[in-house]
Amino acid sequence: MGTHIQARQGDIAETVLLPGDPLRAKWIAETFLENARCYNQVRGMLGFTGYFMGKRISVQGSGMGIPSAMIYYHELVTRYGAKTLIRVGTAGSYQKEIGLRDVILAMSASTTSSINDERFPSAHYAPTANFELLFKAVRYAESQEIPFKAGNVLTHDLYYEDDRDEYKRWAEYGVLCVEMETAGLYTLAAKHGVRALSVLTISDSLVTGKVTTPEDREHSFTEMVKIALNIA
Ligand SMILES: O=P(O)(O)O[C@H]1O[C@H](CO)[C@@H](O)[C@H]1O
Ligand SMILES: O=c1cc[nH]c(=O)[nH]1
């Protein structure tokens, strides 16, 4: 048993989808999985295991930000034997040609987090996606004619930045969008030798100020979920 995930050994599949929002986890389980069963309710951070096209898959909420999410990633990998972690998250666009509901495959994640500063005191680690998962995601999206962009994302420690123009510098260097967990996910996956990919959907734009609703974020971003399930 883990401290924050209280499941029995064997309750959690080797492949886990990871939305930040536990209610997005519930929606994914109820909408896409057969025979889904809830294995965790600790802190309301719901986790479910079921079947997608015969394959056993879990979906686990992970909260907002690296400190919360890494607790769940850690327990999934070290206590429950998870081998493939696929984040299905929302993100804010940093580029004018990337609009609401666009899908992003995170090849790498820059970050404002200091999680790797102690590990690499005089250097900068580059958290990177698993190539096999990324390649499969590209092939699946192309086969289904799901438009996507692949590239560097920013994992920020702050949702509300002091300087709302801060994004322009990142945008100038090609960063596609901002979210709050991927750099932690890729770092932890590398350390433990498991596979990870973040598939994101643009929920708002720092460039245009356009936003989606909380309901949209919870239960309407189906394309990223389909990509995640089909590469699992
Ligand atoms: O929609 P999720 O997966 O939670 O992801 C994004 O949304 C939250 C902020 O609203 C942060 O967790 C950010 O990374
Ligand atoms: O972290 C996030 C997620 C969605 N939109 C943002 O602007 N930031």
From TrEMBL:
<dbReference type="GO" id="GO:0004850">
    <property type="term" value="F:uridine phosphorylase activity"/>
</dbReference>
<dbReference type="InterPro" id="IPR004402">
    <property type="entry name" value="DeoD-type"/>
</dbReference>
<dbReference type="GO" id="GO:0006152">
    <property type="term" value="P:purine nucleoside catabolic process"/>
</dbReference>
<keyword id="KW-0808">Transferase</keyword>
<feature type="domain" description="Nucleoside phosphorylase">
    <location>
        <begin position="16"/>
        <end position="219"/>
    </location>
</feature>
<dbReference type="GO" id="GO:0004731">
    <property type="term" value="F:purine-nucleoside phosphorylase activity"/>
</dbReference>
<keyword id="KW-0328">Glycosyltransferase</keyword>
<dbReference type="InterPro" id="IPR035994">
    <property type="entry name" value="Nucleoside_phosphorylase_sf"/>
</dbReference>
<protein>
    <recommendedName>
        <fullName>Uridine phosphorylase</fullName>
        <ecNumber>2.4.2.3</ecNumber>
    </recommendedName>
</protein>
<dbReference type="GO" id="GO:0005829">
    <property type="term" value="C:cytosol"/>
</dbReference>
<dbReference type="Pfam" id="PF01048">
    <property type="entry name" value="PNP_UDP_1"/>
</dbReference>
<dbReference type="InterPro" id="IPR000845">
    <property type="entry name" value="Nucleoside_phosphorylase_d"/>
</dbReference>
